[in-house]
Design a protein that fits this description.
Length: 151
């Protein structure tokens, strides 16, 4: 993630992360996507309702979710809604994405990132690998500690 292009978290073995090339399709706005039949990539802005995409998930290859500020957490909810509904395509976090947010974004279902500012790959790798245990369910396959302890 050394440049501003859409980039995967290179070298990470997590199955939640993309191992192939990031999509290059231009993403249209939610309003434009809903008014046409041939778009396969959509961009959700903060405040857009991800549930509007649910009837057409099979058509989508890329959903790019905007993070206008690192303080704006609405994109996390949009990602969870889409993953829990069965979306299996590229889910890209774009915008003010900070390195310490990436592990949480992965847990919500993001598998591609396009940060505004460069992120050092080694710092990113350490951030993603920092915590081996999780305490709540996520969109990823990580098993929460309480489930391992209590079955």
């Amino acid at each position: 993630m050394a440049d501003r292009d859409a980039t995967d978290v290179a070298g990470d073995p997590s199955p939640a992360l993309r191992q192939d090339a990031a999509g290059e399709q231009p993403a249209v706005t939610l309003e434009a996507f809903l008014s046409q039949d041939d778009a396969h990539a959509v961009r959700l802005e903060a405040g857009d309702d991800a549930r509007a995409l649910l009837p057409r998930l099979a058509q989508l290859k890329l959903v790019e979710i905007s993070f206008p500020s690192f303080r704006d957490g609405r994109g996390y909810s949009a990602a969870r809604i889409l993953r829990e509904a069965g979306f299996m395509g590229e889910l890209r976090a774009q915008g003010d994405v900070l390195v310490d947010q990436v592990p949480h974004m992965i847990r919500c279902g993001f598998n591609s990132f396009a940060p505004e500012a460069a992120i050092d790959p080694e710092v990113l790798k350490r951030s993603v690998e920092r915590y081996a245990a999780v305490y709540q369910r996520g969109a990823d396959a990580a098993e929460p500690v309480w489930r391992r302890r209590h079955g």
